[in-house]
Amino acid sequence: MLPPGASSPRALVLVPTRELALQVTGEVQSFNTRRLSIAPIYGGASIEEQLRRLKKGIDIVVGTPGRILDHIRRRTLDLSGIEYLILDEADEMLNMGFIEDIEAIMQEMTSPKRVLLFSATMPDRIASLARNYMVDPDILRVETKNITTDLTNQIYFEVREGDKFDALTRIIDVEAEFYGIVFSRTKVGADEITTKLIERGYSAEGLHGDISQAQREKILGKFRKRLTNILVATDVAARGIDVGNLTHVINYSLPQDSDSYVHRIGRTGRAGQQGTAITFISPSEIRRFGFLKRDIKVDIKLEQLPTPADVIATKRNKIKEELWGIVESENYLECGDMATELLELYSPEVALGALLRLAFKNELSESNYPEIRSINVDRKGKARIFIAVGRRDDYDPRKLVKLLKRECGLRDHDIDDVKIMDDFSFVTVPFEDAGKVVRSLNMLSGGRPIAEITKDKPKGEVSKAKLPRPASSEKPARPVRSASAAPKPAPKSHRMRDVESEDEKPVVSPRSAKPERTKKEDEFWREVPRKGRGVKDFKPEKSSKSSKPTSKSTAKSTSKMTGKAAKAGSKKVSRRERKEARGRR
To answer: CB of 396 within 8 A of CB of 420?
Structure first.
């Protein structure tokens, strides 16, 4: 237990963001029964006020690494008496580049202390931090089977990037009471979405790292009081936001990983309240979204966007409900005389229609909602795999297909667009199997990375007049071969899904019949690590089969060379050396 009234702080809580510092301070204050002095220390706030409070004396400091380090350098914060150190969201502080600051802060603590570290994940840098500054730590892991709440209805819509804003307005308008957060991946994107929403007449505010602390607190205050019902935020700015009763969380752009997705949607579906998490997926994001769904192990349902007719029907029902409330409360009596005058001039239908137009203008017109074109997304999805083996390793399409079936458990219909080059190959597989294929091949080579997922390459035949080479997105990181040593174009059958000739067509075998690896193949894969073959730095060795001379004249001159030129072997021979060889003959 900490005694109150100490001359220097006894506990320090480090958090990544200002919002989280305020939230932690409020939570600690809620169970402060010993009258301990607690203060948040973070950037963006008045440093004079912080200096005044530190001079007066603080028992517990909750702060961000940057401002804490600033006070240490000013010699206004003494950490020599710290007894408790708590690192909250350590992995997020690592992502934000605070680890060096944290290490500098911990070096200022000379007294024995108890360290508590909280982290959603355990990267190597965080584990190293724990080893260096914690003695025999106990590790407590929370069960991660259900990482998302059952009270959150998770759905997604497939829309083009240019149609996302119109899709967002439809979602907002079709809901009777929308109160939610719209997540953008960038600060510029958050500003653009906020500006467009305000121009359309929505009550929206933006929140990101470039906004001052005073403005952030003002925006969050309005949002908590529901004076603003739409908050557009980035992931970093949303850290520490504790707002209850949110009806929606909308992922305007796909989060960078599954952890960010879980943090985003975790802000709805709280305290027994039902919530909805919506994700907009463009065609270019569908593959990453598939990996995300597999990581979180939750079924996210595909839904169709509401049509303009659906949105207008919702607005009409809302108007009817509001009219019914006015009639029930009899708040219309003061307008009775004017209503009588209007009915004397116009029929009831004309009078009501004109009043609705006057009150709602064009809000009840379907023309306010532009057409959102439907898109065709490959439900299965494909991934292009680069493999660092080719013709020089005696691989052809048939042999590579057999390798993938044997080592990766694939079937013939899973393997597509096999392309064999001299020193490497490309193959297309279902993207849900891509990770397994890469891991299996890399384990086969003794752990050295010989396979990786690359970008898609559009299908199409290569012109016969050009040498076959991979697209720019498929080129591996290796030295470029000279034009004279380039191989001949591969047959057309090598560039398509399967070969058309009977002798090269892959043999279709039952899944249970797993081909055995030959002794020669075992020797080849054992030699791969020693040879340095890999995705990044492989250096292919020339085999006797593919080292044929490119012309008859070259072959003739090479076979007749003697002396110094002959000893050079396959090295380049200068004109002077050839003259000396002829002279000696």
So the answer is: yes
Count of structural domains, the chain? 5
Residue at token pair 């791969």: 528
| Residues 461 and 341 grouped into a single domain | no
Global confidence as pTM:
0.53
Query: φ and ψ at 324, to 5 degrees?
Result: -60, -40
Q: Which domain holds residue 559?
A: 552-584
Judging by beta carbons within 10 Å of its beta carbon (0-12, 13-18, 19+), is residue 41 exposed, middle or buried? buried
Q: Using CA of residue 352, residue 364, residue 203, residue 16, what is the dihedral sign?
A: positive
Q: Report if residue 103 sits inside a domain.
A: yes
Residue whose C-alpha is closest to residue 55's, from 104, 96, 9: 9
Position 367 scores a pLDDT of 78
pLDDT for 109-160, tens place per residue?
Answer: 877 888 888 887 777 777 787 777 787 888 887 665 445 556 688 999 988 8
pLDDT band, residue 463 (cuts 50/70/90): very low
Burial 149-160 (b: 16+ CB within 10 A, else e): beebbbebbbbb
Task: Find the helix packing angle between 348-360 and 336-345, rounded to 10°.
Answer: 120
Report the phi/psi class of residue 298: left, alpha or beta, with left for phi > 0 and alpha for psi in -120 to 50.
Answer: beta
Give the pLDDT band (50/70/90) at residue 478: very low
Interior angle at CA 11, CA 10 and CA 15, nearest 5? 155
| Contact indicator for 199, 269 with CB cutoff of 8 Å | no
Do residues 355 and 424 lie in contact, with contact meaning Cβ atoms separated by under 8 Å? no
